[in-house]
Amino acid sequence: MQVTLQKAFVKIDKEQCKGCTLCIETCPVDVLKISDRFNSRGYHYTEYVGDGCTGCGVCFYACPEPGAITVYKRGAIVDEEVLSEA
Amino acid sequence: MATTILKKPSTFYEVFTRKPDADKINTHYCPGCGHGKLHKLIAEAIEDLGIQDRVIIINPVGCSVFLYYYFDTGHIQVAHGRAPAVATGIKRVHPHSIVISYQGDGDLAAIGGNEILHAANRGEHITVFFVNNAIYGMTGGQMAPTTLPGMKTTTTPRGRDIHNEGYPLKMAELIATLEAPVYVERVALTDAKNMAKARKAVRKAIQIQVEGKGFAFVEALSACPTGWGMNPPDAERWINEVMTKYFPLGVFKDISDKVEPVKFERKILTPEDIKKAIGIDGGEITQVKKYQRNTVAEKYKNPKIKIAGFGGQGILLLGLVLTQAGMLEEYHVSWLPSYGPEMRGGTANCHVNISETEIASPLVSIPTVLIVMNRPSLEKFERTVKPGGIIFYDNSLIDIEPSRKDVEVVAVPATKIADDLGSTKVANMVMIGAYIGYTGILTKESVFDALDMMVKRKEFNELNRRAVEAGMKFVM
């Protein structure tokens, strides 16, 4: 089932995150934070606080890893599973 | 219609299977490295322009040497600094392809400084991304041509001293002074505003090539948190606050709306084209002739030959003919010339191996066969001959005799015999005849055929053959 997103959100693959914090630094609405936990490679990874993402995409371009951050803007049509991960 | 999902561009491999280590999802770059940011912008531009199957990326030497792990495009990994030269070659033979040269500052501004200036000056239709992090990142943070005055690096521990190390090279400004480049911009891979500008510049630089407009150059100030010893956000702040003072951002040249685009057609080579190009026009491949080897006495097998004499005596040709004949008889062969800058006079020597097994080194330091055609060569190389080896010397020119008692010595009045045949020039051929006649290492047939292949002036064929035969007759 596909759904149209009513609000934007950002998905971070914690295993692809190296904890450089550039996304946190650049986020204009301050909705990203560094996790207390770390991933399998020992990096404290970035987490989305769960609310408030505007879908501006600056974190996507701030992130040096190709696939660590995915930004879903409002109005994006996605599979339901994606939404459940949000 | 704006993109509603920002995700890993499809230009990247889904899984980095080319990476040899277990982690095939993440890049090899350090946390906060500018390379990843630029990779993403380039990948996105390639995806959006729909040119992925036409892109060939020239991988440099430096941290970004492994571009081919990540981009699902064509790649060539090249010698340090030579990316623009290779890019030139690729673009010239595949004008339809989109050739991207991606280089760091050590690569582009130091060892490859000459390459980039000339590629830019020729106006090659390539796109160059120049990643400037002010140091040699991969090797541990040494001073680069772009290191800022006073900046501490592992090789400038007290800071770059402009009186000793000179000033940083401003590559964008330098290239913008040239006539041919179409577009030159410097960007910074830092905050949101600068990333937006960088994104635009990357797209434009590739677009210019797609449109056939010419040479595009984007310099990207890029963080090296590891090399600079800073955390990633501080490193980016340092670029904005310090680095951009010396390397100002902006467009230094843009004549993209004034240049006349060149239309590049896709070249598709037919099998006939290829046959023509490699000289088998008509597609006929002649039957390869089989040569019979002589039975060679054990002590003359696998010779390591040094041939020496005056420049002009045909020393190198002597070696070439032996090598070529050896090849015809399907031996492993090597030929290594050594000579001074003079075309005539001076001394010349060459090293030849004719071997039943693979040759580890073409160098012959301890010859088993020494062929010398002047006295200085005999004096110089006699002592190097392996005990049990053999020396052939031209005793019509050399007025001394070899003194070694532990080697075979064959005196051949090669120049005298050649003169009697009509030209002293064929003394080298007499020596070939003497050598093959005495040792049986090569047959007359293969030497004659090798001569036909190696000697351009066919009017000498007859005389050369007679000289070889005379040399053989002398020793047999």
UniProtKB/TrEMBL annotation, chain A:
Record InterPro entries: 4Fe4S_Fe-S-bd (IPR017896), 4Fe4S_Fe_S_CS (IPR017900)
Keywords: Iron, Iron-sulfur, Metal-binding
One GO MF term attached to the UniProt entry: metal ion binding
Lineage, broadest ranks: Bacteria, Pseudomonadati, Candidatus Kryptoniota, Candidatus Kryptonium
Organism: Candidatus Kryptonium thompsonii
Domain 4Fe-4S ferredoxin-type: 8-37, 44-74
Superkingdom of source: Bacteria
Protein name in UniProt: 2-oxoglutarate ferredoxin oxidoreductase subunit delta
TrEMBL record, chain B:
Keywords from the named record: Oxidoreductase
Pfam families: POR, TPP_enzyme_C
Domain annotation Pyruvate/ketoisovalerate oxidoreductase catalytic: ranges: 311-472
Annotated ranges, domain Thiamine pyrophosphate enzyme TPP-binding: 74-219
Any one GO BP annotation for this protein: cellular respiration
SUPFAM superfamilies membership: Pyruvate-ferredoxin oxidoreductase, PFOR, domain III, Thiamin diphosphate-binding fold (THDP-binding)
Gene Ontology MF annotations: oxidoreductase activity, acting on the aldehyde or oxo group of donors, iron-sulfur protein as acceptor; thiamine pyrophosphate binding
Record-given protein name: 2-oxoisovalerate ferredoxin oxidoreductase beta subunit
